[in-house]
Design brief:
Layout (H helix, E strand, L loop, with lengths): L20 E3 L5 E3 L15 H18 L2 E6 L6 H9 L8 E7 L4 E6 L9 H16 L3 H18 L1
Parallel strand pairs: 3-4
Antiparallel strand pairs: 1-2, 4-5
Helix pairs in contact: 1-4, 3-4
């Protein structure tokens, strides 16, 4: 979830990270990958897709001064309550937005922090969901996420 890290985002102690990994000042986890070694088969996205998503996250954050986070995966229990719980663990929660996509549950939830709630309104969130869902229906998760980020960025910067 967060720029570059597209999984859960809990507070992690440096000592608990694998060798070659660090928590950056922005709260992002950065890890080395040895050149020439293939990535594992368990990655859901290609490197090009991840770069495209990371660029969109960076552009959205820079344009709006709102920290955008993305979570893609399954959550236990009631999706809305689970996303609320997940959102509370995001970095800089007061000034951030979480776009949570639960593909197996066919759910898209967006949360925003208190400090940005006046700019990231329900209308802006709905625009993001609408932009994402049209691509999701065509089977393109990355395009849907990038579209949501762009539409929400446009709506936030015009308000």
């Amino acid at each position: 979830m967060a720029s570059g890290d597209h999984g859960g985002h809990a507070v992690v102690a440096q000592r608990d990270l694998p060798i070659g990994s660090v928590v950056t000042s922005s709260g992002r986890i950065s890890a080395v990958h040895r050149a020439g070694e293939p990535f594992g088969d368990d990655l859901p996205f290609t490197t090009d897709q991840l770069v495209r998503l990371d660029d969109a996250l960076t552009d959205a954050t820079r344009a709006t001064m709102v920290r955008f986070n993305i979570f893609v995966g399954d959550l236990e229990g009631d999706p809305a309550a689970a996303v609320d719980e997940l959102f509370a663990t995001t970095p800089d929660v007061e000034r951030s937005v979480l776009i949570a996509v639960l593909p197996n549950q066919r759910v898209v939830e967006i949360r925003s922090g208190r400090a940005v709630a006046g700019r990231v309104t329900d209308r802006v969130a709905q625009l993001g969901v609408t932009a994402a869902v049209s691509s999701f229906r065509e089977g393109d998760l990355i395009d849907g996420l990038v579209s949501a980020l762009r539409v929400m960025t446009g709506a936030i910067t015009k308000s």
